[in-house]
Amino acid sequence: KKLALTFDQSALQDQQASESIMGDRIELRRVMTNLLGNAIKFTDVGAVTVRLSIANKQPRSIIASKQPSRMLVLEVEDTGPGIPAAEQPKLFESFITGSHRRSGSGLGLHLSRRIVEAHHGRIDVKSNLGEGSRFTVQFPYQQV
Q1: What is the distance between the alpha carbons of residues 140 and 42, in angstroms, rounded to a whole number?
Q2: Which of 23, 46, 110, 131 could connect to 119 by a Cys-Cys bridge, CB 3.0–4.6 Å?
Q3: What's the chain's average pLDDT?
Q4: Pairing verdict, β 4-8 and 47-56
């Protein structure tokens, strides 16, 4: 397809190497493979960018403040056709396929959300028609 694929981890340069996320390596790889595969599949021209960064999480309660206060943020952004606003709220439901001619079975994003949530994370999408999509995954990041 001759797409540019960029991996940007520049935001991690000053971070401690003694921190990590805890989880199932195979399942986390499945999430990454699904998001990256979708970005490549739906992008005909332009680029796919993968970014890693760390964000501070704002505790919602005293109980939440005992959880890790930092999140590892993975973003997969493409320059594809974008996802219609009407389809975005149901995107992570099972067997929901988009209106795009290359839509799959409707399981990949559903399974990705389930895996992310099982790892105490969250997954979101921001997309505009004609501008592409950005999937953001956040995982608790803790010292080991």
Answers
A1: 29
A2: 23
A3: 85
A4: parallel
Lowest mean pLDDT among 2-16, 33-47, 54-68, 80-94: 54-68
Q: For residue 136, report the phi and psi dihedrals to the nearest 5 degrees.
A: -120, 125
Residue 13 phi/psi, 5-degree rounding, is: -55, -35
By three-state DSSP, how is residue 142 classified?
strand
97: three-class secondary structure by DSSP:
coil
In sequence order, which ranges of the chain are alpha helices (DSSP H)? 25-42, 62-65, 108-118
Strand, helix or coil for residue 91: coil
What count of residues does the chain have?
A: 144
- pLDDT tens-digit series, residues 66-110: 555 788 999 999 999 999 999 999 999 886 665 555 556 678 999
Output helix, strand, coil percentages for the chain, rounded to the nearest 5.
25, 30, 40
> For the whole model, what pTM was predicted?
0.84
